[in-house]
Structures are given as C-alpha cells and as structure tokens.
Amino acid sequence: MRREMQKLKILVDKIAFFLISSLISSQKVGNILKKFLLLCALLVSSVFHLDARYDLSEFTLKNGLRVVCLKRNSSPIISFLILYNCGSMHDAISKSGVAHYLEHMAFEFNGGEFSKFLESIGAETNAYTSLRSICFYEIIPSEHIEAVFEHESMRMKSIDIDENVFLAEKGAILEERNMRHDSSPQGAAYEALTSNAFNRSAGGISVIGWKSEIKSIQPQDLQDFHAIWFAPNNATILIVGDIVDVNQIKTLAEKYFGNLEPKEIRRNQEDSTRPSCVKEITYSSPKISMVSLGYIYHVPFSHRQNFRKSMSLTLALSVLNQPDSFPRKILEHDWKKASNVTFAYMEGYFPYDVVETGIDSSVKNIAEAEKIFARLMKRLLAVGIAKRDLDTVKKQWELSMAYKKDDIGDITDYIAHLLSHGYLLEEIQSIDETIQSITIDECNAVLREVFSANPVIISRIMPKEYNRDQ
C-alpha cells in the first residue's frame, strides 16, 4: 500500500511539475508570478532525484558500429535509434532529395514486414532526414529488443524497392514539397535564401530536394545511395530505457550487426571557407504581407572545438529569445515597429557555425527597419544581458531537462541531436553541470565576439513590387 501511495505521489508531483513549467513558458504570466512558479517548480522537481550527469556508456564493434546506451529504470520500454552519418548534402549532383526519398522507402523494405511487426506490438516509430544524417527510431516494449536489432540490421544490409510503392511514395513526397515550399511563402523564401547564401554541400539546398530532380529520381538512385552510405562504420545506435544489461546489448549487436562488412566512406571536402564579403539577398512574393529582415553572423569558433563557449552562446541566445527580453521589449513594445524578433544558433548544420537573427517588421520603409535593427545590436553590444535573466533561463533549463529526462522519447531525441552534431560523450554527460556553471561574463563576452563583426548574409523578404525606398 505504501509503495502504491509513493507512486501516486510521484505521479501527482510530475503532473504539477509539467503544469508549472508550462505556465512559466507562457507569455501571459507576469514576472512576479513567474518567480513564484520557479520556486514552486524547483521544490516539486526535487522528487525526481535526477543526476546532473547522464549515465551513458558506449562500445564500438570491430566493423566500426558505435553503440551508445543510457539506462533508465522506469517503464519496461526501450527507445532504439539508429543514426546514419549521411544526408541531403551527400545527394548526387542533379539528384537532390535522394536521401530523403530513401528514408521514406526504408519503411517499405522487405515488403513492409518491419513496419507491420512494429504496428503489431504497439510500437511508436518515425524517421527523419537532415543535411548530415538519416535517422530511424522505434519505442518498443523491452522484450522485443532482439527483433528490432534483427530488422534494423537487415535494413542496413540491403533494401528492396517495389516499383508501385516507389511511384506512390514519389507522389507523397512531391505533395510534401508542395506544402513545405511551393505553397508556403515562408518555406519558398527560406529555400531561395539558403540556395543563394550557401553552396550545395553547405546547406544550399533543401533536404526534400528540387521538384524537377525529385521527379527524375529512379529506384536505382536509392539503391546506389544505400550501397555507399549504409554501413556499420557510418552509423551510431542509441538505446535508451529499460536495459537489463549493457553486455546483453553488446551480444545482440555482435549477433546481428557484427557480420556486416565496413565500407570505404569517401566524403567530399566541405567548403568551410567563411565569405570575406557580405551577401545581400532579396526575395519578394505577392503572397508575402510583411517585411522580414534576416542577418547571418559567423561564429568565430566551432562547437566541436570549444564546448564551453558553445554552451555560453546557447544560454545567451536563450535569454534574448525570452518573451520579456529587452530586444522584444524594444522592438515590440517601445518602438512598436516589429511583430517578432528571433535569435537562432545553428551549430553543426553548416560546415561552420552561424547565428541567424531576424525581425518581422510592420514599418513601411525597409531602410527604417534596418536602422532599428542596427540600434538594437548597438545596445546589445553596449549593455549585454542581465544576470537575473540568465539565472531565470538556467532555472528553466533545469526544469525542462528534469521533465525531458523522464520522457524516453524526449531524452532519446535530445541525445541523438547532440551526437549527430559531433558532441563528445563526456560533453553530453556533463552538459547540465556546464550550463549551470557558466557566468554572465562568459555569456556577454561570447555575444560581443559574435555580433561585433558584420553579418555575412543579409536577407530581405518583402511583398511583390515592394519599393525598399518608399
């Protein structure tokens, strides 16, 4: 009886924790109430007894397959994720969209047998393709872990492509492209901007591919991509959840993947040269109703080389993105000239790290909007962010990670994201401790380092026939 009451208390505390953290992130909650909620949430979150460090372990098979495990003693479920180090940047010339197309078709390999099996056991399954990676993952009852190992090893070894399924999937992909880009003013604008700002191997093409090239893709193109990139020495398996014994996982990995031969992976040299001059790109469309300005700044360090600086920049930009941060107050309330302002740290996506900033402006003269943004950046460099705001973001980070760590899907996605961006295991294990130890001086120093230089790309998105001087 006592044990059941303890479980009930934990459940109630978790629900309270979720509700409080949701209120904290709401723009409708005042600052005084937010502070009170943060105090309540910290008290509630103590029930989790979560370690600041992740209990991660890893091993590598002789053929190069890397396996990372995170043991979570909660429900008898396991998240199985396999990450291939290949993506849309590895599509052949004139064949953009092949990596994404292969991700779609991989669900149908073996006549869809794997998908049918996962459905029969009530599993949750999904996949995604990015510039640098293709990922498949399943959340399953832990007793089915061996079957997933078997099916995923078969998918790595080969795929068969049914002509009828291939054609049906092409129609679905073309419709997906239509929704994301062709019928979306924002999607079309972003695609046009990235294709002009970056070369093909550096993110200058959308993951889904160009429409004409998608239409030209044949089944052999997918087979060729699979033959080159789907290899044990080009993949990482991440297993999170009710792992009885890591040695058991190693035995299964050896049994189903150990006999697969490694491949010679030849990667094209990425152009990591940072442009010496500013690119200015203008996009206009009759579907656009508001002027938007975008600025891309190079980050003068790599997240792979300076983990602490990367985390400092992450924290500082989180402060600037807060609903009550001074950039939003200045633009949205004081000047009443903008409806939105954003700061995004794009680490590991392009060959070099960048920060994207931008505003959606309601002013009629785009030159005026540019002056407003210049004043904003001048104040940012002069004043920086405040310690109280940094402390608030640190508390929010602590609360969100407490909730994330308790959700097997969330924590798997988070760790996979860090692995795919090249973070080391020891960095991932200490990330929460690092975040809490970062000082306000470090945050402001890294903001000055990034924003004191001129942007390398300036984009202007505006209605069709818009006169920038009017």
Structure at a glance:
By secondary structure, the protein is α+β, with helices and mostly antiparallel strands. The protein has helices at residues 2-25, 31-45, 98-105, 109-120, 145-157, 163-182, 185-197, 211-216, 219-229, 246-257, 307-320, 326-334, 366-383, 387-405, 408-420, 425-429, 431-437, 440-451; strands at 56-60, 66-71, 77-84, 124-129, 134-141, 235-241, 279-285, 291-298, 338-346, 354-361, 457-463. The protein is built from 18 helices and eleven strands.
Q: How would you describe this structure to a colleague?
A:
It is a single chain. This protein has helices at residues 2-25, 31-45, 98-105, 109-120, 145-157, 163-182, 185-197, 211-216, 219-229, 246-257, 307-320, 326-334, 366-383, 387-405, 408-420, 425-429, 431-437, 440-451; strands at 56-60, 66-71, 77-84, 124-129, 134-141, 235-241, 279-285, 291-298, 338-346, 354-361, 457-463. By secondary structure, it is an alpha+beta fold. The chain has three domains: 2-48; 56-257, Cytochrome Bc1 Complex, Chain A, domain 1 (2-Layer Sandwich); 279-463, Cytochrome Bc1 Complex, Chain A, domain 1. Strands 1-2-6-3-5-4 form a six-stranded mixed sheet, with helices on both faces. It has a five-stranded mixed sheet with strand order 7-11-8-10-9, sandwiched between helices. It is globular, with a radius of gyration of 24 Å. Residues 1-25 and 41-52 have low confidence and may be disordered.
Task: Summarize this structure as a short list of keywords or feature phrases.
470 residues, alpha+beta, Cytochrome Bc1 Complex, Chain A, domain 1, 3 domains, 18 helices, 11 strands, 49% helix, 17% strand, disordered N terminus
